[in-house]
Every structure is written in C-alpha cells, then in structure tokens.
Amino acid sequence: MLKAVILIGGPQKGTRFRPLSFEVPKPLFPVAGVPMLQHHIEACAKVPNMKEILLIGFYQPNEELTRFICSAQQEFKISIRYLQEYAALGTGGGIYHFRDQILSGGPEAFFIMNADVCSEFPLPEMLNFQKEHGEPSSFVILGTTANRKQSMNYGCIVENQQTNEVLHYVEKPSTFVSDIINCGIYLFTPEIFQHIGAVFQKNQQDMLVLYTNEQTNGWHRAEAIRLEQDIFTALAGQGKLYVYKTPAFWSQIKSAGSAIYASRLYLNQYHKVHAERLVTTEDGGPRISGNVYIHPTANIDPTAVLGPNVSIGTGVTIGAGVRVRESIILHGATLQDHSCVLNCIVGWDSTIGKWARVEGTPSDPNPNDPYAKIDSETLFRDGKLTPSITILGCNVTIPSEVIILNSIVLPHKDLNRSFKNQIIL
Questions:
Q1: Out of 2.30.130.30, 2.160.10.10, 3.40.50.1820, 1.10.10.10, which CATH number does the structure's domain 280-423 have?
Q2: Cross-sheet strand order for the sheet of 334-335
Q3: Which of 114, 156, 183, 342 could join 359 via S-S bond, C-beta 3.0 to 4.6 A?
Q4: What are 282-291's pLDDT values in tens digits?
C-alpha cells in the first residue's frame, strides 16, 4: 500500500501571498476554481493502492481546514488527516516527527509533496520509474529543466545521464551547477527515516556541544531538519537517490502573481482531466474566450466577455459589458457594468464600480524560452513597487470610473480615487 504526505507549512510563511493569506491559509487559496491543495489530493487519490493522505503543517486546526478535509474525504473516498507540528520543523523534521503515523499500516512507499507547487503530478510515472531504477529501497526526486540563470533559485541536481542517479545536489547554488531542478515532489521508502534519524542524532550532539559552551540562545532545535540541504546533499552519489525528469508543466506558487500563472496551467490541464470544469459560450450566456472556470452559483450578464484564463468563484456577480481576462475573482465579489479587470485577483466580497478599470502587469515566464520558470519577484525594486498583478484584499470597494494599476489594496478599504504602483494600507 501507499501513502502521501503534503507539507502545508504554517502562518509565518506565505508573507509574499499577503493580503490574500490574511483571509484563508495559503494552501486553501482557490487556484483554477478549487483550493490549491485539492489538485494534490486529486492526483494522489487516482494512484492505485493509495490508502491515506496526511497533511503536515503548523497551522492551528481551524474551521476552514477542518471543513476542507471533511469534504475532500467524502469526495475522494480516502482517509485524509491533518497532523499539526508544535513548531516549524523544516521539510524533513515534520515527517520525522510524525514517522509513526506515516509508517502505521506498513506502506511500502510514500509520496512527499510541497503544497506550494503546481504540477501535473506524474505520481504513477514516478512509481514505475522507481521500480525500474536502482534497488527497491531507492528514493526518487521529481525534477524538471529550468534555464541556466533561473536554476540557481532552486535545488540543482547533477545526474548520471545513463542511470538517472543523483550524483550531486546543491540547494540554491551561487553559481551554475545544473539546469535540472528539484520540483518539491518525492517518492520515499520507509528507509528514508534512517537517514533523517542520523541527521537528528548529529544535530543533538552538536547542540550538546553548543549548550556546553553556552553558545546557544535556545532557538536551535535538533528536530528542525531540511530534506534538501541535510538529506539530499548527503545521499547524492551513494546510489540511493534518483531523479525522474518530467516534461509536463510545473511551477511554484510563492506570490499572488504566480497563483494566476498556476491557475492558467491548471485550466489548460482541465481539457484532459476535468473538461466539465471549463465553460463555453452558450446562447444567452456570456462570451467565453479560451479557458474559463465559472462556479455554478455565479450570476453573469450575457453581455460580459470572459477569458482567457479566468476563474470565477461562488456567488460572484458580473454586470453588463464587463471584460475580465487573466484573473481570479473570489467569492461574493461584484463587478459592476462595463468595468474591466485584467491580470488581477479580486478579493472576497469586493466591489468594482461601473466603468472602473483594475489592471496589473503579468509576471509570466519568458514565452520564448521553453525552460523559463516564473521569477520570484521582490516586492520592491529601487525603492519602488515592482509592477505586478493587482490584488484587492477582501471587502475592498473601488468607485466608478477610476483606474487602479499595478497596486495592492489591503482588506476593508473604500477607495475614492485612482492609484498606480501603490500599496494601499
């Protein structure tokens, strides 16, 4: 039997995702119409012999998370549990802390997935690859090709091209190492815990030395272990670690801008796996261009034009002549007549007035480079806000006939004029 573990992190992370992460834990933010985590769970539930999915993180168990887990269990008919860490333990520390829960029932292997990636999740292919490569107890990293410059922002993998064994692993190197990068999705056998345990023992000994020399201020934790730097770097070149390279789409979801890009990738994938989630132009309905998801409870005027790459949540109201492109409209939002929304995330219960224009600048990868990834943009450059998508927090009101360009508006704001390149607090 198999299990899957999804690492969902916790509240101190996701700062680049503000103000959207104020309202909802980042892993539950809707991307292409469903919570980010649901894409992972759907992929896991399709794998034969998958018995349980464990979510590990240090969010306080809240109503939203509990409700999501309950509905996902019913929909996918699989056991899903949330295990809360007492502190941020790193990608390896969390799974080591809950190793008894992961190993209960005796799974022969288990997947580890980071919640903030978007992917086609080629899990069955990784299983087949593991059977064909190396010994049964080998471990597999999902890799993809990046361009030379961007590869240094990720974990870089040097492989043996004949056997796909990982010979060398460096997390975010300062010079070019390899264009194969770590996708944050792994297939492990229970033997991985011996390697993590060895790091834990070493950390404990190091801490004893620190305590003895009184060099610690109490925040070091032996359990804080990073899979990438502490485990993969040591395992590389030992015949234990292999890389399965996927040609399919993959991206990180670190910032709100990357959520729109991820939404586009998932909407495009729906043609193959969830055609029922995509809408088309129908008589008496709005004009649809490209891939668009509309929740059945949304109320949309037939003269609106939507798409490409638009996702519209529950209870959204869209008036006459509205134009929406490359945007995520969250539940309860209202777009009044003839407003225009481009490259934007419109927060929960926000209102955009008549003839208003809300527009951002997409932070897309270079379309001429097949290996380009989305850049993790810094919020500011040269003391100015970097032009990116426009984000409206929840319950923001934009008056009629104003223009909001490349701005971030925090929740519960009533604007009274146009803004450009601003963070409106």
A1: 2.160.10.10
A2: 299-300, 317-318, 334-335, 351-352, 397-398
A3: 342
A4: 988 999 999 9
Count of C-beta atoms within a 10 Å radius of residue 293: 25
Q: Check: CB of residue 54 under 8 Å from CB of residue 37.
A: no
Residues 102/56, Cβ–Cβ less than 8 Å: no
Domain ranges of the chain: 2-252, 280-423
Class of domain 2-252: alpha beta
Q: What's the predicted TM-score (pTM) here?
A: 0.93
pLDDT of residue 1: 94
